[in-house]
Design a protein that fits this description.
Elements lengths: L12 H30 L1 E2 L4 E2 L4 H10 L6 H14 L8 H18 L15 H24 L9 H25 L2 H17 L3 H20 L10 H12 L2 H20 L11 H56 L3 E5 L5 E4 L1 H7 L16 E3 L12 H6 L4 E9 L5 E11 L9 E8 L1 H40 L6 H33 L4 E5 H12 L7 E4 L4 E5 H17 L8 E9 L2 E8 L30 H11 L4 E3 L8 E7 L2
Parallel strand pairs: 10-12
Antiparallel strand pairs: 1-2, 3-4, 3-8, 5-6, 6-7, 7-8, 9-11, 12-13, 13-15, 14-15
Helix pairs in contact: 1-2, 1-3, 2-3, 2-4, 2-6, 4-5, 5-6, 6-10, 6-11, 8-9, 9-10, 9-11, 10-11, 14-15, 15-18, 16-17, 17-18
């Protein structure tokens, strides 16, 4: 079996990588522990019998924090070896090192289990994390100090002063190294740091770079003055530098700055330099220097984490505000463009929300104040036409607890226009702490629906009437025909022909009526196929058929007319208009029809002029309604011809009208888009 490069026989590549990473981690921490032990050994004071610094506690905390139950036995073994190598008598014992690390890990896993090093994935990022981290560090350092003070650490017990010194010494390195590890070792830490720098570079001005450089220079000068062989008492001002850095830098950089500054203080003090030499006792000087490191790291952590948490909270709040503004704008846009009227009526009978559709339906004042003295004030009326009393209005009833669902009301404006509205009024309680409900009111204009319903009823009546008449004729003459054929004597052929002619005439009337109904429906519903149309040629085709009629009409068509329209609908339009002109003439008069056009406002205004009997003035507006007939029984027809014309023109965005200035005869004009 072949093995890929870098792969051991029987060991998967993924498992090999995991083992390699574990070995690298173990080796790195072993080296760090040996180095920390060496530093502690170098600070050993023969007279006091104790190491003045002992970073091995901080390394032990990080070593165990980065492990798990499978690695901890090996980690403890490594700590034992490193501690033994570093000479147990120089400041620590194996039990103390293990107890320090175990105590810290146990508390962190209980107090902040989602933080890296305590079983989680994210670095220290919140003040709450800092509280858990601080508690774990203090408890760990204090417990180890008590162990040494009581002699349970397997070395002779210490005096009270030495116990306090041990606690401060251990806390400084557990706190400092632990903070750097929890902020810098997680996988996401350096990505977050890069994102921070990119964000700062994008939004901060160039002078901030100068400010940061100035901060570093000021810190170097103050640190040099405070920890020089001949120091000046400026050490307290270094805390201000740390505060400055914590406000300007990300948490990892701020803690690194504070830890470096504190380490400078510790090294300077141990080498006999700096302001802390005023204290004669070496142990006290070391405790003060390492206490200074503690204050620096804590200040940097508290301020930088608080600043970052505040920045994150502000960013989330701004994002939430932007999202809320976007949703509000979307909601407003939807409300503004709804065809239905939407309003919210407060407990004080004022509009909290009212979209433009409400204004269109009810006028400028709405119908909240029916007694308002305004010519535009609409009045809500009942089906009988009487104004509704305020208690009977839907929104008033809703305020009293009734839910009004899809109730039909009529509104009459000051101009006399009437609308039929479908109203829904729902009470909503508990807004703004007011026990009185607000009313959510929706309006839907159903005027056209009611008009179409009425037209449908009228349409059904007309259709029934106009079909019933010829059917009555057919039935009557067929009964007469049956009786004639049932008679004993030979039927008269001429009489039979006359009867059949009456039946055929009635059936032809029904056929024409049904054709007009179909054309009426097609003119309304059929999808348009807009093409360039030679209107003159189309009109000439219609005229040619009409010229062959019994009255031999004279029909002239202006050449060169072109429009952009649906060809079948335009042919139906011309056929109806020319047919009416030929049909509605006085007896004995030869029809004269002229089809002309003139361009007007980007459209073609076409006129069909005749010498017929004309349209009565009272019918010139109504003649385009369905089943409207201007000449009664004197001329046959269905009353749908001009209604079909109106639908055909309106579907092309034009208009059609009867020219009242023309006479005698009739001139019907319409507009269509030009080619």
């Amino acid at each position: 079996m072949s093995t890929r490069v870098g792969e051991l026989p029987g060991v998967p590549v993924a498992g090999l990588r995991v083992r390699t990473a574990a070995l690298v981690r173990f080796g790195a921490f072993l080296v760090a522990a040996l180095l920390a032990g060496s530093i502690g050994r170098l600070s050993y004071d023969d007279e006091l019998g104790v190491s003045l610094v002992w970073p091995l506690y901080g390394v032990a905390v990080l070593w165990l924090a980065t492990g798990n139950r499978r690695t901890w036995p090996w980690d403890v073994a490594g700590l034992v070896a490193a501690t033994a190598t570093s000479l147990l008598v120089n400041g620590g014992t194996v039990p103390e090192i293990v107890v320090a690390g175990a105590t810290w890990v146990t508390m962190m896993r209980r107090l902040a289990p989602d933080v890296w090093g305590a079983g989680g994935e994210r670095p220290l990022s919140r003040l709450r994390d800092l509280a858990a981290f601080g508690a774990a560090c203090v408890t760990s350092a204090a417990l180890v100090a008590l162990l040494r003070g009581t002699g349970l650490g397997l070395v002779p017990g210490l005096q009270v002063q030495e116990v306090w010194f041990t606690a401060v010494r251990n806390l400084s390195w557990i706190l400092g190294l632990g903070a750097l590890g929890l902020l810098g070792l997680p996988r996401t830490a350096w990505t977050s740091l890069r994102v921070w720098f990119e964000r700062e570079r994008a939004v901060q001005p160039a002078w901030r770079v100068v400010e940061t450089l100035g901060m570093l220079l000021a810190t170097a000068l103050l640190a040099g003055a405070a920890f020089a062989p001949d120091p000046t008492p400026f050490a307290f001002t270094l805390v201000l530098c740390t505060v400055w850095a914590a406000f300007r830098l990300p948490p990892l950089a701020a803690v690194l700055f504070a830890f470096g500054l504190g380490s400078v203080a510790v090294v300077a003090t141990l080498t006999g330099q700096g302001v802390f030499l005023a204290e004669a006792d070496p142990m006290t000087r070391a405790a003060i220097a390492q206490g200074f490191l503690i204050t620096q790291v804590l200040a940097a952590l508290a301020i930088s984490l608080g600043t970052e948490e505040r920045r994150t909270a502000v960013a989330r709040a701004l994002a939430a505000e932007r999202e809320a503004d976007s949703r509000a704008a979307l909601f407003s846009a939807v409300i503004e463009h709804l065809a239905e009227g939407v309003s919210v009526i407060t407990a004080d009978d004022t509009y909290a929300i009212r979209n433009p559709a409400v204004h269109r339906m009810t006028g400028a004042g709405g119908f909240l104040r029916p007694d308002a003295d305004s010519p535009d004030q609409p009045v809500m009326v009942s089906e009988s036409g009487e104004p509704l009393a305020v208690p009977d209005m839907p929104h008033t009833r809703a305020r009293n607890g009734e839910s009004v669902i899809r109730e039909t009301v009529r509104v009459r404006t000051g101009t006399g226009e009437e609308r039929t509205l479908e109203v829904t009024s729902i009470p909503v309680h508990g807004l703004d702490g007011d026990p009185r409900p607000v009313v959510v009111n929706t309006l839907r204009d159903v005027t056209r629906e009611h008009e179409e319903r009425d037209q449908l009823v009228s349409f059904a009546g007309v259709v029934a009437h106009d079909l019933k008449n010829p059917l009555t004729v057919v039935r009557g003459w067929t009964e007469s025909l049956r009786e004639e054929l049932a008679a004993d004597e030979e039927p008269d052929v001429a009489v039979l022909r006359s009867m059949l002619g009456r039946v055929q005439g009635a059936s032809d009337q029904m056929h024409h009526f049904i054709d007009d109904l179909l054309a009426f429906t097609v003119a309304r519903d059929r999808p348009l196929d807009i093409v360039d149309v030679d209107l003159s040629g189309l009109a000439e085709d219609v005229a040619e058929l009409r010229r062959e009629g019994d009255t031999r009409p004279r029909i002239s068509v202006e050449p060169g007319m072109r429009v952009r329209a649906d060809r079948p609908l335009v042919r139906q339009l011309l056929d109806n208009l020319v047919g009416n002109s030929v049909k509605y003439v006085a007896p004995g008069v030869r029809p004269q029809v002229d089809v002309t056009a003139v361009p007007r406002d980007g459209r073609l205004e076409v006129s069909v002029t005749d010498n017929g009997i004309g349209i009565p003035p009272a019918m010139r507006q109504r003649v385009f309604d369905s089943f409207a007939r201007a000449h009664g029984v004197d001329y046959t027809g269905t009353g749908l011809g001009l209604a079909i014309c109106e639908r055909a023109v309106s579907r092309h965005g034009g208009r059609i009208w009867v020219d009242e200035s023309h006479g005698p005869g009739t001139r019907v004009s319409f507009t269509l888009p030009t080619a």
